[in-house]
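Teaching assistant's notes for section 4

Start the section by putting this record on the projector. Ask students to predict, before seeing the second block, whether Methionine adenosyltransferase 2 subunit beta will look compact or extended. Collect guesses on the board.
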Amino acid sequence: MTNVDACELNPEECRQINVVGTENTFRAAIAVSAHFQLLSTDFVFDGVKGNYSEEDEAGPLSSYAQSKVDAEDLLLKGNYSNYSVVRTIIVYGNGINLSRSNLFLWAKDALPKGESMNIVDDQFRAPTWADDLAWGCIRICELNETVSVEELEKGVGELETRQLSSIHKQHYNKAKKFHAPPSRFNPNEYTAEDWMLLGLSEKQTNVVLKFAKRGIKNNDQLKQIFVIDDALFQLIKDSTFYPETHPNNTEYGKQYTDKPIVKIELNTATAEELVTLPGIGDYYAKNIIEYREKLGGYTAKEQLLELYRFDEIKLSKIRNNIDLNTDEIRRICINTCTTQELAKHPYISWNVANSIVKMRGNVQKYTDLEQLLKSELIDKDLLEKIRPYLTLN
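Reveal the predicted structure now:
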């Protein structure tokens, strides 16, 4: 749903289409191990800063923009790295009945007739030719990695099937420079800084750290990580070791010790306390508290990775500085709650919430959380994820 005015008039319909719809198709992509691509928008930004990069914090000002930010967050929170987000700006093309959605055709039709055109005068935006956008989307899927706007501008070539003007006409030529590791190392223990010293970008590093978190057992598994370029793999393959081979890992590699600046209990910390943590400013402190309230409390430090733009690097800087007390986690009683109350939880979609409430009508009263597995929408992974936030009474 892309009509901004319609989204403002029908925010719930907008959320169902742009957020819940994304969630459902994302799950389908995961089920078949497909690359998932989300078409988002430049409206995720508030326009205050001016020129933006992919890493800048979002500032949605409309229901439409918020729905796209929420959809992006779904992907960031998921434990699936084979996806990409493409933020588009005023897409135009050449087709039938596009006079109002294509600024150029609109002007071409209106001006010769002497018709007036009502347009905004407070925005400076760069229209995107649809063929260029399509090429870029395909290229990103082929690369299977994050590609910046600058890289796409280098990558969009001449479109031979169209003679219309394109603003992107340079050949893709992204150079990669990798470095050999200084010593033998266990990929499961390498820090973000270590991987980046080898030549990986910050985003590529985050992908590797996600795999390392689950455990990399051998070089075959390491090679299968899609951000590990073959050139890099050839440089590091003879320098790696794994716990099965070298149980005494301390004799290899570097040792890191973090000196805590301050110990903070995450579920009771105030914004003033959170900003004393390394790398946590007012923005992240506010988001940590807001998300804590939505969740009902944190049950694991890794949940911070579900925050917008909060990555493994930020977590590694504060991991030893935070404690968790889960005694006061706010739980939802599945025997008395409404669908709306359940659906407010970040981990529970409206469809899942509705399923839980409807099944309750069949059994009269839940006696075990395991009964939720009878829903086609709830698997063991989801149940374990939401279990800390549910109660029977």
